[in-house]
Design goal:
With 281 residues, this protein is an alpha/beta fold. 56% of the residues lie in helices and 10% in strands. The chain has 14 helices and seven strands. Helix 4 crosses helix 5, helix 9 crosses helix 13 and helix 10 packs parallel to helix 13. It starts with 9 loop residues before the first helix and ends in a 6-residue tail after the last helix.
Length: 281
C-alpha cells in the first residue's frame, strides 16, 4: 500500500543543518521560520530583497537544506503548509491578514500546470485518450470542476466519453475493457472511493492516466502515465483552477491530433444544435 506521508517541516530541515549555516543563511532561516509563506509564495528575488541578501545566497541556503534549487525548496514548503492546513476550518483559523492572496497562489498553481505538460509530456498524457475505444473520467471532490470540463470538451471532439459517478459506477464499470482509457483526478486528502474505483478500472485493463498532486499519491502506483500539479488553498478550500486548466490543455491537444475526425464531429453537433434550437441566437 502506498501510504501518504507529510513532508518534513521547515523547522526540522533547518534544525538538521543549523550548525552549518552562515550568518546570512541564518537570517534567511529566521525569516522563513517566522513567516513560511515568504518562501512558499515569493520569488527568490522577493525573498532576497525582504531579507537584505543576494539571490545566490538564497540558492545556497536551499542547497544546504538538501534541495537542488530554490524552486524545489519552495514546492516542499508549500506542500508542508497544505498538509498542516488540510482542513478548511484550520485554514480559516490560521489565515493572516498579510498572507499571500489568491492571485499569487493561483499563478503558482498555473505555472505548475504548464510545467507538468512541458515538452513531450502533454502528448504522453493524451496518447491513451486518442487511441482508446472508450474514455472514462473519474474524480475526487476537489477536481469535480475539472472532470466535468474534461467530459464536456472530450465528448464534443470524440465519441465514447463517460463520466463515472458513484451512483452508477457498478453498471458503468461492467463496460470497461482493455481497449479503454481512464482519466483519474484526485488531490490530497485523497478519497478512498476514488482510489478503489481506479484500482477496479486498472484491473479491467483500462489504461490509467492520473492527474494528481504528489508522487506519493495513491493514484501513482495505479497509473500507466501521470502528472503532478499544484493545488493551492484559496480561502478555506482547495482551488479548482489548476484542474480545469490542465484538462483544457488536454482537450485542446486531443482536438488538434484528431483534427479531421474532431472537426467533422463538431460540425455534426453544431447542426443538431441548430436543428433543435439549443441557442437563442
Amino acid at each position: 500500500m502506498n501510504i501518504r506521508k507529510s513532508p518534513a517541516s521547515a523547522p526540522d530541515l533547518v534544525a538538521a543543518v543549523s550548525g552549518e549555516l552562515t550568518p546570512a543563511e541564518r537570517r534567511i532561516a529566521e525569516a522563513v521560520l517566522a513567516e513560511p509563506t515568504l518562501l512558499a509564495f515569493g520569488t527568490v528575488t522577493d525573498l532576497a530583497s525582504r531579507i537584505g541578501t543576494s539571490r545566490p545566497t538564497i540558492v545556497r541556503f536551499a542547497n544546504k537544506l538538501g534541495f537542488k534549487g530554490y524552486t524545489q525548496l519552495q514546492r516542499h514548503v508549500r506542500s508542508d503548509l497544505s498538509h498542516r492546513l488540510a482542513r478548511p476550518s484550520e485554514r480559516i483559523r490560521h489565515e493572516q491578514g498579510n498572507s499571500p492572496g489568491a492571485r499569487a497562489a493561483i499563478n503558482n498553481a498555473l505555472a505548475s500546470v504548464f510545467e507538468a505538460v512541458d515538452g513531450e509530456r502533454l502528448g504522453e498524457l493524451t496518447a491513451p485518450i486518442l487511441r482508446a475505444e472508450k474514455v472514462w473520467i473519474l474524480s475526487g471532490e476537489t477536481s469535480q470542476a475539472g472532470a466535468r470540463k474534461l467530459h464536456s470538451g472530450l465528448s464534443i471532439v470524440r465519441p465514447g466519453v463517460r463520466l463515472l459517478e458513484e451512483r452508477t459506477f457498478g453498471a458503468d464499470a461492467c463496460d470497461v475493457g482493455p481497449r479503454d482509457a481512464a482519466v483519474v483526478m484526485d488531490f490530497f486528502r485523497y478519497r478512498r472511493r476514488v482510489t478503489e474505483a481506479a484500482r477496479l478500472l486498472a484491473q479491467s485493463g483500462a489504461t490509467i492516466v492520473a492527474i494528481t498532486d504528489s508522487p506519493l499519491s495513491p493514484l501513482v502506483e495505479l497509473a500507466d502515465t501521470w502528472c503532478e500539479i499544484e493545488v493551492p488553498a484559496v480561502g478555506p478550500f482547495d482551488s479548482s483552477v489548476p484542474a480545469v486548466a490542465i484538462v483544457e490543455l488536454l482537450v485542446a491537444r486531443v482536438a488538434r491530433d484528431l483534427h479531421d475526425q474532431a472537426t467533422a464531429r463538431i460540425d455534426r453537433i453544431e447542426a443538431l444544435w441548430e436543428e433543435t434550437r439549443v441557442f437563442q441566437q
